[in-house]
Amino acid sequence: MIEEFYRNNFDKQVKKIRYIIGSHSSAEDVVQEAYRRAVKYQSSYREEMGELSTWFNSILYNSMKDWQTQDRDKGIVKKPLSDDIVEELTYIVENEHIGFIEKEIEGVLGDGRVQSVLYLWFILGYSAKEISQVVNSMSVTNVTTIATRFRKLIQKKHDVSI
Description:
- There is one protein chain.
- The chain has helices at about 1-20, 25-40, 50-75, 85-95, 100-105, 115-125, 130-135, 140-160.
- The protein has about 160 residues and is mainly α.
- The protein folds into 2 domains: about 1-95, Rna Polymerase Sigma Factor, Chain: A; about 95-160, Orthogonal Bundle (Arc Repressor Mutant, subunit A), CATH 1.10.10.
- The longest helix has 23 residues, at about 50-75.
- The termini are far apart.
């Protein structure tokens, strides 16, 4: 089950995480750590509770947050490796609004859950259902409302569509 999911999703997940943290090798480390955790805790996955991707995405999100916390605690700032630059630029061009959206998300006030919802929705492309399962005590309706209000705010403030 996890092996097939790994084969079908690893590269895509590394690409998403690489954009967030800025280093291909570190993104691979984060995704590999998430798969290590998934294998270790695979008995906790229950098909009736939701999709395997939703379950795994919560593990991946936590793995990335742990990595970011560890690096911040060490005072490390990651820069893309030189052999990743062409691939990184291609990804940025394909997703031209992501950097802009990330900055707007950082400026959102709240308890951190709102920023997490916006990040998962607009940057990682999670569905409202997936986000409600990852972010504790957040209903699908609340997730959708937060995303819709943010979208309208950005459209009004900057006259752009996201």
